[in-house]
Amino acid sequence: MDLATLRVFRAVAREESVTRAADLLGRAPSNVTTRIQQLEAELGTQLFHRNRKRMILSDAGRIFADYAERILNLADEAQQRLDPSSPRGTLRVGSMESTIASRLAGPLSRFSRAWPEAQLELTSAPSAPLLDALRACRIDCALVAFPPDGDIGEPLDLETQPLFREDLVLLLPSDHPEIRVPADLRLRTLAAFGPGCTYRKLAEDWLMSDGGSGVRIQEVPSYHAMYGCTAAGACISIMPKSVAELMGSSGSVLAVPLMQVVTHLAWRTGFDTASLRAFRACLTEGSNLQEHTDHAQ
């Protein structure tokens, strides 16, 4: 169970194909097949279900995939820590979808131009799953939103840097009367991401703040879906103003200012590589905060 074999396993798991994994790794398909068979023999369990030409992870394979990802990430981190001269290798970045849409184009471009030997691997999820992935070493850093009270769960294992101030707006159908308090809402269906999204939690808390009736959640996969459902009159939604402004062509809505929330970059305490430092510098350059002071939570 060496690192090379784990990389082969990860590639097959991601591609669900021996042929595509072999092309990605620059290996012969027969070599990839042999590596997987040897790994399964060593572990004493079947890692994949062979379904025609697809390789689907078994239950045991899904468990092993999580460990393999963490082992490979830690090995890459160790190499970068021992050679801190300049950014290189892969930095695994998690981010909220809203931050990717409205804040990351400039920082990603600056990073890739300045450090061609380094690679950013970007994934998207709500804040709570990102923090779980960060603590499990599946990603190296994460752009997340915390509630205004600053509660981030288990704070002592993370360091954070505030980067972007977002103005959250409540979106209503264009024919909705003006509102002053949640009780004025005609609709009580909220289009939102799944559990773990800070903005969803803030919206639910606000909707219940007047002691009114509960809210029904319509889970959707994207901000475009939220905006479209609201413009169609089916529900209400909440998102950063910077994201809503990108979607004007998707229909007409009313935007009601709600509150401000700060997006932070979070990373594990002690994680310090040249790639992370360079990425933080690129993000700081694009920050809309007056102060860019680092602080450990």
Describe this protein's structure.
The protein has 297 residues and is α/β, with parallel strands linked by helices. The chain folds into three domains: 3-71, Orthogonal Bundle (Arc Repressor Mutant, subunit A); 84-165 and 262-285, Periplasmic binding protein-like II (D-Maltodextrin-Binding Protein, domain 2, 3-Layer(aba) Sandwich); 167-261, 3-Layer(aba) Sandwich (D-Maltodextrin-Binding Protein, domain 2). The chain is 40% helix and 24% strand. The chain contains eleven helices and ten strands. An eight-stranded mixed beta sheet has the order 4-3-5-10-6-9-7-8, sandwiched between helices. A hairpin with a 2-residue loop joins strand 1 and strand 2 (54-57). The protein is globular and about 65 Å long. The two termini are 37 Å apart. Residues 1-58 form the HTH lysR-type domain. Pfam families: HTH_1, LysR_substrate.
Summarize this structure briefly:
The chain is of the alpha/beta class and 297 residues long.
Biggest sheet overview: 8 strands, mixed
CATH class annotation of the largest domain: Alpha Beta
- The count of helical stretches stands at 11
Mean pLDDT across the residues is 87
What percentage of amino acids are in beta strands? 15-25%
CATH topology group of the largest domain: D-Maltodextrin-Binding Protein, domain 2
- The strand count comes to 10
Question: What is the distance, rounded to the nearest whole angstrom, between the alpha carbons of the first and last residues?
Answer: 37 Å
The CATH superfamily of the largest domain is Periplasmic binding protein-like II
Bulk shape: globular
| CATH architectural label of the largest domain | 3-Layer(aba) Sandwich
Domain HTH lysR-type: 1-58
Keywords: DNA-binding, Transcription, Transcription regulation
Protein name: LysR family transcriptional regulator
Family: Belongs to the LysR transcriptional regulatory family.
